[in-house]
Design goal:
- This protein has 10 helices and no strands.
- It is an all-alpha fold and 199 residues long.
- The relative contact order is 0.11.
């Protein structure tokens, strides 16, 4: 991806977080970047093409950021250390895992745009799936892993959509309160299989 194209997309994300979808106007983004509309048309197929590219960029960043943070702990990390690392990354900065203004802006946009709604649904599902993978060795069923993943995820989403959003340090404190509830070792899968009965 070219440097100028990246700049258009990164600035679009910043504008979206600051002003919502109504602020994502090509002339304003061009002025902020000091780039021409010719540069825009070189990289994107009109406003709709830019919207699709911006959504794809947001989706990629949203999913990769969580996956990267989980991978940093490594395959030998237990659920508590992985979730502890994710808790550390809740900080008030653009690159942190918690970006309430951006989350609110995209969720609000998704209420009126089916394409944005589809992107948001994919992001939510991918993030939940990543958290489920973290939890799965520590519970006995997939359903329990999903429930365990939903708790921190819904806490983060809820914290971002209340008005005003919960501050990053306060949300980090909430997650630190939950960490002692995370199991220290893998679940006894034999017990889970017996409860499930023969296949």
């Amino acid at each position: 991806m070219g440097a100028a194209r990246d700049r258009w997309l990164d600035e679009g994300i910043r504008v979206l977080a600051q002003e919502g979808a109504a602020g994502v106007r090509i002339d304003r983004i061009a002025a902020r970047l000091g780039l021409s509309k010719g540069s825009f048309h070189h990289h994107f197929d009109g406003a709709e093409g830019y919207k699709r590219a911006l959504l794809a960029h947001f989706e990629r960043l949203s999913i990769e950021q969580l996956d990267r943070a989980i991978a940093e702990v490594g395959p030998t990390g237990d659920a508590r250390s992985t979730l502890g690392r994710l808790t550390e990354l809740i900080e008030p900065r653009e690159a942190g895992l918690y970006q309430p203004e951006l989350d609110v802006a995209v969720r609000a946009w998704s209420a009126s745009d089916p394409e944005v709604r589809s992107a948001q649904a994919r992001i939510d599902e991918a993030r939940l799936a990543a958290l489920q993978r973290v939890w799965r060795p520590y519970v006995t069923t997939d359903a329990e892993a999903r429930t365990a993943a939903l708790l921190p995820y819904l806490l983060a989403v809820g914290a971002s959509v209340v008005s005003p959003p919960v501050a990053a340090d306060e949300l980090r404190g909430l997650f630190e309160t939950l960490l002692p509830l995370v199991p220290e070792g893998p679940a006894d899968t034999a017990q889970g299989e017996q409860a499930a009965g023969p296949a």
